[in-house]
Structures are given as structure tokens and as C-alpha cells.
């Protein structure tokens, strides 16, 4: 069983040395209202301890209860949500909760429920699985379809559509901020929950005002299925179970955020996350069927046409042509050239990055077509140490970038902590070096033969859903909030302080 | 609260039977188990308004003093094997000893063998002087430790010790 | 062979660490009283003899215990790190013959207490700083200029509070020891700024307070259980294949930690029960070299004593033991060859200068 490995930012904010799996974290007790037999809720009351049995109650006093009852404190269930809410407490207890989101739990859930399974496959996980099983990226869809349909009715989509909505909104967000702000401030753009957790726990006051509030493509797609597709298919949100396959464990924390959970209807936007390595672990049983390509014998899956991941004409998969984390900076560069600096389409420059200290901290400049003095400065910051340097610059007001794309993992999402693991044996057997293997994953993420990029605005379906569904209730549907999780200043602060 | 109904033990009326040498100012009174017990018995649990003696966390048997070697060993027993307040209780005991014992003494504060699931981890943390020092520099934590220790100050023997 | 020269009961609370500058003429000490004291030698006008005096007190720079101080190799900067999570950099200069210190930079980043700070020169002769702390990480910083520092790397790998770090072979290797009972050796990858865990030395059964290189790529470490271990490398570490170091990618399983054949350092000598309480500090008096096979080192312990050990091959001898060197735990011992002096500092705040004759 693979051990969960969070991004560095999350590990840094994990301050506890140990909490043994059997111990619960110290959470204040929540009193529970118990229902009486009449189904009317009545408050539990403490029994009055009378010093002298013969003492009579004052007749004017209202008797609280006729029978003395014992206060029962309900054992507090600590969920992943709570752990995120409580500051600085990502403990081994949380590791247990994370493992509850693994494949086993997912399977047992299905044996009890009759929901339609929606699998959201991230392009990085797809690339990872394609590389390790030596199959085409397109065939990974078949593989996932095959394995999940063993447990219920499942459909597989990749997150490309979510990306298109995300990118359209990011452009609008930047344009509205760019035109408002006089002073230069970076817009911190990220789909990375590791970064969000880190910002909320260490420098919330400094960073939250700068962070983009657009939901990540992952959460946008989950929301889309549960709230939009459900209506089209004349179903209820609870009829769907959305599980995503992601390259890191941090995504598990993302889906547990209270902002992505509706407590009234008890619906989560995305129900659970499986990492690529968890899927890999599970597939070890089926190694033979995979090598023999038996999973291809399954009839091709029915996709919702709107989310079709394959271009019908050239049969290429839609993908993003970038280093591996979604290509936000590259897209912003091209679109802003068009929309803010009014470059004609043929003249839009290719983005050209300049590495600062290393390839994980690089910058690019977009100059105004007519007036080269006007510039937009982009920065791409990957990896914890680079994030540190960026935050320091921001703190000292020395940050001159307009947009910064941030990812917690060095080399980006293709190198996520949850990607399929590669052993020395595998490398020896296949006569391939580590460097070459990583290049293979990069090719399976995007190459000009199998993949093609699509401008979101060329996708009529995305435009329609963006304008008709998302924009009208933007605050709730497109945007999210961040919370200051820096210090626990409750009464129990001392009791939960870790040292 | 983990253990809302802890068992309360009766406090022992431990009496020291005075010896003749106690009244002789020229003979140094050795520090013994009873004196350490006096220092610690009234330290209060962080959650219940009860003393460590009443909760049987500190007992006379759990204390060993080696005067000639300048060493004190205190064993304490958490109320339940999963008690998460154990490190805090250990820290309070340690802090009380640091403040009250003559500086020639070295001491260890350990969980009574077999009485806690994470015995080794807790012993390690409580006996790491650097960790304890840093802990007491955290205001919230210091406050809680001081609150636990305060009730025990009233019963302090006031003799100056070498 | 140890004779007290001078005693300084100046710190009002525990003195934790001492550091000599590169020119070996200034000593810095730090304490829980949140100050740093600077000592220098001066001619006493009355006795016409050289003596040490406390020439400056650096105050109001940290909000909590100052745990460690270290001088840069060019002698220009002093770094101090504290339980408040901050590392301060002081600029040292001589103004009218007086030692002057100015706090020019504050490095933030560690999530909680910073335990140690150690300077070194990078291969491009820039000042590099390594810091470690309770957040289980080791940070490597580069001094871009006096007031600007850039974080080069954050080393994660230890599963507990990192207590001590030291550099070996200039900036080629970094050794760290931790609450998690292991010593790790780190090396910088040749391609980019990635530091990789080259080896994890397991053999202690308690928190390791100090780890230092003692010559010939050997490592000496001491722990909470009064044990000292001398580790020797099995192979020539200069010639290890580069492929081994290509990491930073989380995809590749870290089995280098698991297989015995990949382990480089091995326990060579284990010294147990030489002290009765935890050993907090080690200092090498005579390192192992091609021409010297007798390792001589000092220990400072929680049993108030300072001990001098000699190790030839696997034979250990205690050359001398000074019980009651201090009335309380000895937190740090340093050796100054040029002046035949040992300095030590104690839990009660006292700093002592000793004359040491081999």
C-alpha cells in the first residue's frame, strides 16, 4: 500500500510529531441534540445535583426536567474537513482519513449504493498510466472505463472541459483586476490545493487578497455534473458519485473543503479522489489483462458529447501543450496579447520563458503591440523553495510580476506525489533511465501526433455553458473562498498547541 | 473531554513522622520521595478540576529519589491508555520539578510502564529539554501549564534547599 | 590538563551555543535570555596580561530563546536563529577599534523553532546558510547580497525535529541529525538545486543531539541515551556514480534507503555509558587524516561533565574526564587550537574559558 506523500507545502505545515492512529485529535466537544420519541427535538439537560435530598424546589422555579438525565457527549467524528479547519493539524490521523478515500473504501461504497459513477481523469494521471503500462494515452480511457465498470455503471471523462471553463474565467478575472488596480500586484493563479493550504496556514493576510478566486477545473467539473448535467439528465445530484483520478494527495484535501460541500443537501461537488498510484496498486491484480490488452475488448464508452475528449476529424485527443500543469501561463499570454494588447491573431508572439535560478522559476514578458513600454510580466513558480522566495518578494513589496502561476511540486503536476511509482526493477527491465522515463510521461501528456490544443472560445458547448450556467450565478458557481487558518485562537488553543 | 467520568481516588494523608535530626539545623535534610510527592500531588489535570493525586496519576510509589546521585525519577500514570493530555501533564510535572528542585538534581519524568499506548513517544517528548523549553515559550501553552501548577504552590514547603 | 581561565556568569538564563569567528579572535554566545554576547581579548591595563572580556551585547533581535549562532567563513557576518522561527543576519565591522554589529536581514520561512544555523562557502564562493528546525526541514539559503537571501532548497526527509546540521568537505555534503534517531547525509545534485538524501544512518535509539564530520569522511554523532557513534564510509564517496543522484522526481521509489548495498556509512565504533546523562555537544580536537589515525574529541554532557576521548582504529580511551565542569548541563563545547583553549557554556548561563594542554 503506497504511503500518502503530500506536497512540501503541506508537510511543512504539519506540525505534530505523532498522534497514534487510535488517538483522536483534541477537538472541542459538540453537544448533540437528541430526538425524543415524538420526533421533536428536545435539549439535553444536566441533572441538578441537589446537596440536600430534602430540599424542595422553589415553587416558582420551572422544573427543567422531571426525570434526571445523563448528559451524553456524542463521540466527535473527525473528518478531513475538520482537520483542514483546525489550524496546523495534518496529523497521522489525517493520513488514516486519507486512506479511507482509497480504492477499498470506494468499492465498499458501491456495494451499498446505486449511483452512477463519473470518473474524472486528469491528463497527468493519464500520462502516468500510459507510460507505466506502455499504452497510448487514448487507451487509458478504455482501461479506466473497463476497471470502473466492474463496480457499477461508470463513465470516464477527462478534465479538459473543466479547463476550458477555468481558462475563460481566469482571463475575465485578470482583465477586470488589471483595469481596476493602479498599483502592480501579482494575481496568484493556481489550481494547486497544496499551495492553497500553505497560503491559508502561513500567510493568509498577505496572500489571500492576491489569490485568484476561480475554482479549479477539477472542482468545476464536479460541480457541473452534479448541478447542471443532473438537470439535463433529469436526475438528482445524489444519483451521481464523482470520483477523480489525480496526480497528488493534496487533491483529496481539496474535495474535503467546506466550500465544496453543501451541508443542506449533503452533496459534495466531487465525492472522492484516487491518486494515480492508488489506481496502479489496484491494477496490479489485472496485470495480465492489461498486457494482453483485454480491456480493449470492452465496447467503446458512451460519452456525453459535450465533454468529448477526442477531436472527431483528426482523432486527436484534446490536450494542453505545456510543461505538464495545465498551461495556464501559456494560455494567458496568448489571450491577453489578443484581448488587452489587441494583437491581431496572426501576430501573437510565442511565449518565451527565461529561467531564473532554475527551470521551476521562470518569467516571461508580454509587450503591448503598439506601445512596447506597456508590459505584462508573467512568472511561473513551481516547488516549495521557489514559493518561499516569491512570498518573500511579495512581503517586501518587491514583486513586479502581474501574474504568477504557482504549483507546489517541483517540475509541476507530472511529478505529483501521487503519480504511479516506478521501481528500479522496472527501469532495469525496460532498459530505460529515469530521465528518459520522465520524458516519456511528458510525451504522453502532450505530443503533436496524438494531441491537439483547442481554444476554449472555439468550443461552442463550453461557451454556452459558461454564459448560460456559470456566469449568472458566478459567485456560487465559478468562484470560491479562502480562509485564514493561521492560528487557533479558541479557548482550547493551549490544549491543542503542538510542541 | 475524553474521560468525562474519571475515577477519583482518595487523597492519602501522608504524614511525615518527624525525626530528631529534622530539628537539628546542622544536619541537612535529605530530599526524599515524600517531599517530591508534596511538590507534585496538587498539580491539577488540564481538563478536570482534580489533582494528579486524586486521579492517581501521581503516586508516592511512582517516585524514586537518589539523593547521593542527585537524581529523581517520577513515573506518572495517565488516566486512560489513550489519554492525549499526557504530554501536557508530563510537561507540567517537569516544569514544577525544574522550578522547585535544587539545581543539583537531574530528573526524568516517565510514563509508568504499560499504561499508555504511546508511552515511548511521550517519554521522548517530555524528556527532551529543548522541546520543553520551546513549549514554555508559547504563551497559550505556558498559561495552561501555569494553571495546572498553581494549586500546588499553596502546599509548597518553604525551606530553602541547597 | 583542563584549567579554568575565566568564568563569565553573564547570561541570565541558559546559554545554548558558542561560535568562534574565522579569525578566531571573537566568540559569540547565545541564550534563553534572548541576547547574544560577544567576547574578545583585551590587554588588561593593570595586570598587563591579555584577558577575555564581554565587549558587546546584542539585544532585542529575537522574541524567544536564541538557540544557535554561527559566523560566516569570511568573518563578516554572524547569524543567529531562535525559537521564534526567525534567523537574523548581523553584519560585523570594526568601528574605531570597537566591535560593531548591525542586524541587516531577517530570514523567515521555518514554520516553528529554528534549531541551528551553519554557514559555508558555495562552489562559487558565495555565502550559503543552512538552517534546520522542529518543522523537520533543512533550508539552504544563498546570500545574494547583504540584505537579500534566496532560498535554494528545502530538504524534507527527516520524520522528526532536526537538531543539528554540519557541512562536510566544504559545501559538498550536509550532515543532519534528528529527533527521529537518524543521521542523514545530503548532497547537491549536479544539474539543479536539488539536494538529495545520499544516506540515512540508523543506529541510534534516541534523539541525536549532535553530528559532526571528523575527518576522512567519517561522522561522529551523540545522543540522548548517552551514546556516541563513529561512522565510516564503506566506499570512496567522491567517486559515486552520478545517476544515483538524479532525483527530485517523486515518481521514483526511494529504495536507496532500503537496500543494504546502497548504504555508504556504517557504524564503526559505538561508545556507550561514558556519560550518565544525554550528550549535547561534540567537538573534534584532532580529526582523522591520511597521516593521523587517532581521533581525539570532546564531549559536553547533561551530567555536568566534559570528557576527552581518543579513538585509534576501534579502540576507545577516555583521556580525561572533568566532572562538575559546570554546575549544570554542558550545552556546548568548542576547541580553539590556536590559543589552546576550550570554551564551554552551561544551562545556568555561565560561559567558561579553559586552558587546554594536550
Automatic annotation (TrEMBL), chain A:
Domain Iron hydrogenase large subunit C-terminal, by residue range, is 116-417
Say if the entry is tagged with keyword GTP-binding: no
- Enumerate the GO terms in the molecular function aspect: 4 iron, 4 sulfur cluster binding; metal ion binding
InterPro entries (UniProt xref): Cytosolic_Fe-S_CAF (IPR050340), Fe_hydrogenase (IPR009016), Fe_hydrogenase_lsu_C (IPR004108)
Q: What keywords tag this UniProt record?
A: 4Fe-4S, Iron, Iron-sulfur, Metal-binding
Say if the entry is tagged with keyword 4Fe-4S. Answer: yes
Q: Which family does it belong to?
A: Belongs to the NARF family.
Record-given protein name: Cytosolic fe-s cluster assembly factor
TrEMBL record, chain B:
- Provide the GO biological process annotations: chromosome segregation; protein maturation
The record ties this protein, via InterPro entries, to: FSCA_dom_sf, MIP18, MIP18-like
Q: Which Pfam families match?
A: FeS_assembly_P (PF01883)
The cross-references to Gene3D superfamilies, in alphabetical order and at most eight, read:
6.10.250.1280, Fe-S cluster assembly (FSCA)
Which residue range or ranges hold the MIP18 family-like domain?
35-103
Superkingdom assignment: Eukaryota
- Keyword line: Chromosome partition
Protein name listed in UniProt: Cytosolic iron-sulfur assembly component 2b
Q: Which terms in the GO cellular component ontology are assigned?
A: intracellular protein-containing complex; iron-sulfur cluster assembly complex
UniProtKB/TrEMBL annotation, chain C:
On whether Repeat is a keyword of this UniProt record, the answer is yes
Q: Which domain of life is it from?
A: Eukaryota
Task: Identify the GO cellular component terms for this protein.
Answer: cytosolic [4Fe-4S] assembly targeting complex
The ranges of the WD repeats are 59-91, 107-142, 155-187, 323-358
Give the UniProt keywords, A-Z.
Repeat, WD repeat
Q: Which SMART domains match?
A: WD40 (SM00320)
The record's section on CDD domains has: WD40
Q: Would I find Heme among this entry's keywords?
A: no
| One GO process term, biological-process aspect | iron-sulfur cluster assembly
**Function statement:** Essential component of the cytosolic iron-sulfur (Fe/S) protein assembly machinery. Required for the maturation of extramitochondrial Fe/S proteins.
Entry's family note? Belongs to the WD repeat CIA1 family.
| Name used for this protein in its record | Probable cytosolic iron-sulfur protein assembly protein CIAO1 homolog
| Protein species of origin | Anaeramoeba ignava (Anaerobic marine amoeba)
Taxonomic lineage of this organism? Eukaryota, Metamonada, Anaeramoebidae, Anaeramoeba
